[in-house]
Amino acid sequence: MAAVYKKEIRAFANGMIGAITVSFILLLTGIYTWVYSLRLGNPSFALSLSGNFILSANLVYVLVIPVLTMRSVAEEKHTRTDQLLYALPIPMWKVVAAKYFAMLTVLAVPCVVMCFYPILLGSFGTMNYAADYGAILAFFLLGAALAAIGLFISSLTESQVLAAVISLILFLLLFFLPLFAPMIPADAVASLVVFLILAALAAVIVYLMTKNIFVAASVGVVLCAGILLVYIAKPALFTDAVPSILKGVSIFDRMTAFSDGLFDLGAIVFYISTAILFVWLTVQSMEKKRWM
Amino acid sequence: MIEVRNVKKHYGDFEAVRGISFTADKGTVYGFLGPNGAGKSTTMNIITGCLAATEGEVFINGCDIYEDPAGAKSAVGYLPEQPPLYLDMTVEEYLEFVGEAKGLRGEKLFREIDRVVKRTALKDGTADFTDRLIKNLSKGYRQRVGIAQALLADPEIIILDEPTVGLDPRQIIEIRDLIRELGHDHCVILSSHILTEISAVCDYVIIISHGEIVASDKLENLTKLGGSRNYIDLTVRGDESAVHRMLSSVPGVISVEIETKDLGLAHVRIAIEQGTDIRETVFFRFADARIPILSMNYEEITLEKIFLALTADTAADPSAEEPDEEDMSPEDAVAQRVLENTKRRLESLTNGEESVPEAPGVPEMPDKPEMPAAPQVTPEPQVPQAPEDTETPAADKAGKKKEKSPKKSKDDDYTPLFGGRD
Lengths: 292, 422
Fold this sequence. Notes:
By secondary structure, chain A is mainly α. Chain A contains 15 helices and no strands. By secondary structure, chain B is an alpha/beta fold.
């Protein structure tokens, strides 16, 4: 595992990607700190990181994480070096974990630099250090969760560009999700329709993965029947269901609490579990290739 | 060391590997021989754990590749078809990475790197490629780096998928020497579709066609299985019966076929026992009789012939009716016989028997076996059929060709042509 980690770190250090990631994050957080704290005189670094929706530093992740993660697995597949990884006596989960930790190391560099900002700002006024360092931790974990998603997308394709583009589109959708969520009708029937469409989509995905029409149809029928049964039994559950779920998965929106000086444990748990889920999915995706 | 049991691999509906079984031991170089797309690389990927088999088991030093992958893989060094190289690394950085991944640390790691770079000539008295970026190396040197990573940590089993592709002739010789050397104290499996390479390096040959093993034996046995005779083709200007009379008394001749052509030319095909060479005798006899030899060609049953015969159309549909040997073309008959013999040998190996009587020898070839054209690999199984450009024995009977026994000393149907000399 250490060998793969060292290799990845070396690749980030020797290539452009590591430098781009670190410098862009520092550039954007620097600009926001200058605007919010030095120009407007807000005694809060948390505000710079996650303040007013689009006017906050976490937007940088939308652009930077796809670049950081695009080559991680896609390039190995493209150059056939993945065969070496499969043939080495290291379990696949360790390979994926090593790659992921290398990305976290790159993301940690600007966060460590940021830790000096509240102290520097403290010399001009009174800072709420706990809130600021809490926000830096959340900012790092948000990056970690997004990196896991990017890693998974990279494992689905051989093309780095495709991986970057898909990640970028997904992150943009996630970033602007709080804008879309209120547009979706909140009544129970609309939610039911959305869930039924999602069930059908799930069946299509199962078909694409297994090429077995019987299994896919069974999955679709069971999901739709389940949804209808729940709807008949307790229609109240469906009221406002879709908007609240969308709000739940809007990963960037969860940072807002930190700018208000709150330490949102729910958000921390959400970030960590998202990261674990997608790293696990990446391992599964790599293992699946062995069976194809 | 390696035990492969009935391994199958399906890609959707396509069967890439259809039940391959073999064992491989230390101190032997095994050659996987087969046309492109025969399933060599797939089989190697399965043995090394890069691919999972649809069915079957692979044991490496007793460790199941799926149950105990770390134990099994640590005994294997693998060079895939395309060397898995990180182009942005230097050779040393790359080997350090692979060495560490194989569990080497500290002084031992650097000793190992030093050993393998010297062994693969990446570093010698005159040149040192270890601090060069891999992307700046030529294909041949990249191949060497690939081989070097396979040798790191000195695994007992070394699997090389087409190791000499892209090398210049001198490098090919060096790599072959290296493989032979490794074969003394390792179990080496290499794949190739280059016959000379297999016959130059391997002790044991496994011929794969359409995802099946069609022959598996020591190189010398495999050549013997092809038939116990070689052939001499002659074109002479002379009388058929005189030629026949002259040749039938030469020791070592098994059979003579003569086909007369216009202008008094006769094409003669002489089957001779293996290990005999009667070319000089033939030359002097014809010279004494003043029959001019216009051409003489010595043809040995080689691995190439066996290979072509076996891989041309052996992917018989099991449901298809087995063709009658009478209706087969001569090379199909050879292939059939070799298959039978190989199956018997394989059965004897699995039953633990010491020796098994061989099936009757290769049937006499009444016709000049024109080998089929380059083997056509198609994913669909094919029913064996005679190559289009080969006449069947039935057709021969209707033609001019005649087969005569060399035992016959008198020629009953002697008719001189153009005043041919007796």
